[in-house]
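Re: the 177-residue chain
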Amino acid sequence: MPRDIVSNPMMPAMNRFIPLKKLPEAIGYACAGILVFLLSVYLFPFVALAAVIGLLATIAGEACHVLPRKSWLRFTCWAWLVLMIPTFGIMPLLMAPRLLREFPLGNSLGISTGITLSGAYDLFVPTPELFAWDHPFPPLTNAHLYAMGFATLILSLLPVYCLIRIQSARVVRDTPR
């Protein structure tokens, strides 16, 4: 009878890291996360539009008592995590030290993020002389990029906290007494 790799005494660190039974699930989650990241960066305007339409549908579904209470809050938290973290959190942190050149698809991700950042920059500081087709990146320094990335990641702790609180309230409410 062959010994299982997980119970092999020569590899005790493997038991604590990821059990081999969970490895396909972890690989699936990683692939889904990479796909969501790429779609969120490349198709940001379309994903943002879909998020707004989905939020309106969630509010309407909650008003008609089709969806449970606080569905709009859960949807808003997940939309923030999917939309903001990749484009305004991780990408600026990769752009500031010029790490995008080391990744496959890095240059095209940088161009897509630059166009999105130019649109966001133009909302706050209108610059008619900067056209996206001439120079698809706003005049941001590395300090601006680091600040934006870290601020977005720190602000993203709030939606994670809200999701944890909503889930724990649901578990407490559904437990039999």
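The chain has a mean pLDDT of 81.
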